[in-house]
# Entry
Amino acid sequence: MTEQPNPVLPQVILDEPKKVRLHPTNILDEKSQLEQKYLEAILKRGLVISGGIGCGKTELMLYLIKEISQLPHAQVRVYDIVGNCRRLVNYGFAHEPVHSDTKVINDLKAKNIIFDLTLENAEERAEVIKILTKTSFNFRLKAYKMLNNFEEFEKFCSILSVVEEANTILNTATVKDFWFDYLAMGRNYKMTSIFVMQRLADSSTKAIERLPNFAFGMTKGANDLLKIKNMVEDYKMWKILRQKNITPNKLEPYEFLMFIDDEIFKFKLEEKDLVK
Ligand SMILES: Nc1ncnc2c1ncn2[C@@H]1O[C@H](COP(=O)(O)OP(=O)(O)OP(=O)(O)O)[C@@H](O)[C@H]1O
Ligand SMILES: [Mg+2]
# Structure
């Protein structure tokens, strides 16, 4: 007798958390606009933005948030730590302040939302981000199992969480169980993230390798460069990037070397596209 699947809690087949190395196949020309397919790719699989001080990380993040938040099936949740994201209120984002004594978060359902984390220490902020992400993750995990119907689940929106100063979450010393689950399986439940960080070298390789899309801004630190070089497994690829003068140490501010799905290109953020 073949085993019948349980109708309420069927077996869930998840993608194996692949060890992701970057092995894109196409190097494209420079871009200053991102076509919809790249925004969809980021929504579907997330993105890490890294680079040195003042290379334009925050502005790139805001640009992507603005563009992706306009997709009807996207819910964007921004965790604002330093007040960089307030201007998104001009683009229809709900604004939810979170203080140390906040007991209730009202607005998890808003289409797009800024969680304004006015919390003093980094651990406390990381904890709030974790609680809010985990709540939705657990809910979706349950829903995914119970719906037993992929089409029904497809009606769920995609939740993109945006975290600046993501080192507090992905640091080798701090990244913990939940975040590994989330990084490995979140996209099965239509939950992904944009993580922004200055020092890629401090981040956990085990965590980073589960994220396939990257935007590397101007990077001078030898450790950060080495980490990127090691991720670009294919030595020939690195050589081509070098010949084209687009390795991250050669970039100007506001220029990014983007790895999205199987494509690589230089993206230049233009002043006219900055989120005001
Ligand atoms: N395309 C551009 N043209 C002109 N100015 C820009 C452009 N992009 C960003 N800037 C400006 O450059 C400055 C640095 O950018 P941004 O704050 O995004 O850097 P960052 O990488 O986040 O820096 P940090 O590491 O300090 O957080 C900002 O004042 C921003 O307004
Ligand atoms: Mg910044």
About this structure: The beta strands are 26-27, 47-50, 74-80, 94-98, 112-117, 158-163, 191-197, 214-216, 255-260, 263-268. The chain is about 35% helix and 20% strand. Residues 47-223 form a domain with the Rossmann fold fold (CATH 3.40.50.300).
